[in-house]
Amino acid sequence: MVEFALWFIIILFLLQLSVLFYLLTAKRKRISIEEEVNAGYQKWYIPFSSYTTGSEQDVPDPDLYGSTRVLVIEKILNHLIDHSNRKIDKGKLTHAAHLHLSRSYRLYLKKGSWSQRVNTLYFIEEFHMEDLKDDIWDLFSKSQHYDEEYRQSLRSLAVFGEERLVDVLLQDSRLSQRMIKELLRRFPFSIIEQLKSEMDQSKSRLPHSLQLAVVSYCGEKKDAASLPFIEKRLSLPNKEIRLKALRAIAEIGSCSDEELLLDFFQSSHWEERMLAAKAAGRLGLSEFEMYLNDLAGDREWWVRFAALEALRQLPEGASLLKEVSEHHEDRYARDMASRLLTMEVS
Amino acid sequence: MMNQDQFTFIIDIVAILVIAYMGIVAAVYVTLFLIAGPKIRKEQGLEREETIEETAVNQDTFPVSVLVPAYNEEVGIVNTANSMLKLNYPTHEIIIIDDGSKDETASRMIRSFGMERITLATRHHFQTQPVFEGYRSKEFPNLFLLRKENGGKADALNAGINFSKYPYFAAIDGDSLLDKDALLKTMKPIIDSNGQVTVTGGTVRIANGSEIRESEVRKIGLPKKPMVLLQIIEYFRAFLIGRLGLSHMNMLLIISGAFGIFEKSRVIKAGGYNTATVGEDMELVVRIHRSLKDEKSKQRIEYIQDPVCWTEAPSTYASLRAQRRRWQRGLAETLWIHKAMLFNPKYKGVGLFSLPYYLFVELLSAVFELIGILIILLGILFSFVSIEWAILMTIVTVAYGSLLSSLAVLLEEWTYHKYPDIKSILILYFFALTETFWYRPLLVWWRCEGLWMFLTRRKRMWGNMQRQGLGEVENRS
What we know:
The complex is a heterodimer of chains A (346) and B (477).
Chain A: H1 2-52, H2 66-83, H3 90-111, H4 114-126, H5 133-142, H6 148-159, H7 164-171, H8 177-186, H9 189-201, H10 208-220, H11 227-232, H12 239-252, H13 259-262, H14 270-283, H15 289-295, H16 301-313, H17 317-327, H18 331-341
Helix pairs in contact in A: 1-2, 2-3, 3-4, 4-6, 5-6, 6-8, 8-10, 10-12, 12-14, 14-16, 15-16, 16-17, 16-18, 17-18
Chain B: H1 4-43, H2 48-57, E1 64-70, H3 77-85, E2 92-99, H4 105-112, E3 115-118, E4 131-137, E5 143-148, H5 153-163, E6 168-172, E7 176-178, H6 182-192, E8 197-206, E9 211-213, E10 216-219, H7 226-248, E11 259-263, H8 264-270, H9 280-294, E12 300-311, H10 317-337, H11 348-363, H12 365-381, H13 387-415, H14 422-456, H15 473-476
Parallel strand pairs in B: 1-2, 1-6, 2-5, 8-12
Antiparallel strand pairs in B: 3-4, 4-5, 6-11, 7-12, 8-11, 9-10
Helix pairs in contact in B: 1-7, 1-12, 1-13, 2-6, 7-13, 7-14, 8-9, 9-10, 10-11, 10-14, 12-14, 13-14
């Protein structure tokens, strides 16, 4: 027993010594790499900055090697994009990235660790390195998990307008509405139109999140040309799509026929009443003042809040709110109108 | 009367039980390390700033209400509010809830941020002590102050939820500082999972010894006081091994009260914070687990390893004792409230592993360790344990305990590697070796006191310690 305990102690201490040795070695190496990268960054930032802001024509060629070279150039270019006060010539920055980083990045995408691949995908998008598009597609095709690598591959491909993604969007139901919107924001106009036309014509069932995302994206872009496409969705049986369409109309701030909103003021779904109120406020529809007054006493807090906010947005909004705060039959409506009167719009 | 043989026999049995218990606990910790390690290793070197760039500008990023309950926090409240205002997040509101402070918490807020009184019109998801005043900053329209009658931290948080307007809320201690990207990083799992993650928390780290300027941790350093140093190692072990391991299996039962993000509708459905316990943070998370399992929901609770929140650790023995007694009591109360979930297969991993883990490892370990220490000490004194055995057992405990600590330091190096030099690692290693001799016995005793307080149902109170204020941590610890 004693012998066993002694062996156990020896093993534990040996393990601990190994961890300590590893930690000290790794720390020393990390500190040395950081020092090298910082020195390289200090030395080469100005040449790259001069080149990308237009005063210099030749791409700087740092006298660095291996991974340090990649890390330094990556850090400089990333900083120039994110923090430079001067206007960057993005074409030149992309050219420099292609020249110095493409080979290493191709290798990382094929053989790098998970975090190295994900970092590389971010930088490829950031530096707009389109020549690596097919390498990303290869990586994406082999992805098995719906994780950050998969999502960033999609983002990078979307930036390069990769048309093969349309099929992915039409088929992959794992993609969330937010994720699809991230892609839509990166896509060229032609792909958005292609998706809208698929939604109008396709007989097969398209992923629900895709439908929501496209409608929502049109609202976010305040794309008045999409109004017919959006208004068509106000009459669909799916509540969530109707809600997105109502929100999009509020965001765009216009509607071809205001009467389309009328039914929603009395909808049995409080979310529809709330969004109808929001839309009326954004569109400044004074003719709906009576409905908004009614909704100010709605049983749902959010509807009351939206109706009072909408009243405030109408011409004479402040006096309308004062009127509600003094004379509305509902106590909650009066309280909330008073609260809104003490707060400026944020 | 018991003869000496019988006595020795009983002591032997108890000693074997204690040793077997320690062995099982050791195996559990090693298993959790083996679960947490690969995930941390996989993400080592990931450029986290890049991963949140999109979230920072995305209009679809959920807005968040930041709730800061405060009771007699005049020293740190302005710093905390400043730290919240610097958060990098598209849309958030900050609600400071002054829970009937007797000091200048409210007046300092009103003065420092030019706050004006507003009319209150709030929903009442939960009954709370009366909220008698609301203020809004003129300078920062997203900063609010609520003044209410004293009702405890849980009551203050419930009042904050009532007032908040966004679908997610972050609960933050009044003495915490957040990393400027804390909300973005912690909300990321919720956003990426499209709402499947309902609660998230991040790593809380100790700020004592670090350089803090303008409410931000600028340079990480180690404190001088050994008791604070050992708390740092403890936090590494708890967060990087324990919580990450449990989170990986969706069995995490604690999202630190210092910083956590919750889906408001889920919390409302679960009934809000329980005002009858001092462990309101853990109790809420267990109740959420319970409601998720009852509904057969696929939503989950997740923890991220990023260091997002900085807190001031107790730097006096009195405040450390008060904190540990409160934690232990809160844990006991939560386990008692949810005893029906223990070993209940309906609650799957939470009922069959997580709750038993918290009961036997986190709660009762103090009792087992105390028995172990007493057997060794009394055994040597009354000669029923040989000196050789006692020394051997002590060395095993030191070797095992410090190995776990060193593994936690290893995980820290793999994730944040924030300590700037080799010396820091050596210091952490050295103090980890001393833990068994003085720090651990103290904790064991205080935790037993906490358990006793639970059993005797002593009066609850706000768990404030004597604060120095994080802005001054650098010079004081």
